[in-house]
Amino acid sequence: MIDIGLPPYVEGMTGDKSLSKAVNRGILLDLLRREGEISRAALAKKSGLNKATVSSQVAELIEMGVARETGTGVSDLGRKPVMLEIDGNAGYALGISINSESLHIISMNLSGKIILDELQEIKDSSPGTVIRHIGRVIKSAEKKIGESRFGLFGLGIAVPGVVARNNDHVVRSAKLNWRDVSLKDAVAGKFGGILHIGNDSTLATIAERELYAPDADDLICVLIDEGIGSGAYFNGTVQYGHNGKFGEVGHMTIMHNGPRCPCGNIGCWDLFGTEMALRQNLAKAGDGKLPSLAALLDLAREIPGWSRDIFFDFIEYLTTGVVSLINAFSPAVVIINSDVLNVSPPLFERLKTEVADRVMTKSPECEIRVSTLGKAAPAMGACIAVTERFFHGLVVK
């Protein structure tokens, strides 16, 4: 038996008579999700459970409509094994990431396959406008997805700001200019399934670890857009901080005599290291017009001479913040979600070189990666979060 640990679905359960069954089901569900396709015999071997327990549990999962048989596998000896997998088309999660000018919409099936990926512009980011738009998105997604065993079972919403963990209340979002918004209560009237509201950086980090760095127990993700946020896993556990306030790293001071930030602090990282700040600095050095995101990425690919110092200053600001995070938390992996770094390998290499030169520990203990998920990461993480809750519900039945 390999040490696969206990899946998240059984955390916090007490030792009553249902615990053993719940633990067994949780382990088997976790293996089915991770392996993709696996036989009953392989499930027994990898889990350490006896064959009778595996057969009984698998039969129940098939009856529930969560798992299905896919055909026969390969075997050198004896009868070919019947293979099993999670029935991806049995249900779907919907993730929505709120930005100041748009909603990024992702839907994933039970197997984690993306079946819907859309970007919809919004007229403004006021709570009323966003809530009405979310209602329309839900109805549209239900029509596009169609009927299935569990249908659209969950909705996760990623918000750029502080979200209270005890009630999913949006405490503050400087990016959206929101304060004390009961988003969950408003959306609950439009959707009856699993509902989760979370910080966009934390949800992006969940997606990065689940899909991109599953073996990294100590990981920090830095999300760079109009602002800078971060999420983290320490010892394999996602971090939320006191009542959801973890990760507001964009508001740590990197310039003690810098300008005052709207948050009230002085010289915040947000004022210098964001892609919006980069666009503003390019506009000042150019024709005065703020370049679009597409134009920014075109410049990042080529880095014409007149813009070189501006891009290099951007990397310097990023370096200052990343070095502070590495020195403070000692992660094994730092993933930076930045469209600019994604399209410009030279800028990313410059960042890694400068961080390596300035970080306290000079050995290659921390790997720096650029995200491949891009701005879809928060909505993907929202899907993953509600899917975890869905599977938890199956385990504790």
TrEMBL record:
Domain of life: Bacteria
InterPro entries, per database record: ATPase_NBD, ROK, ROK_cs, WH-like_DNA-bd_sf, WH_DNA-bd_sf
Pfam families on file: HTH_24, ROK
Family the entry assigns: Belongs to the ROK (NagC/XylR) family.
Name assigned to this protein: ROK family transcriptional regulator
Source organism (scientific name): Breznakiella homolactica
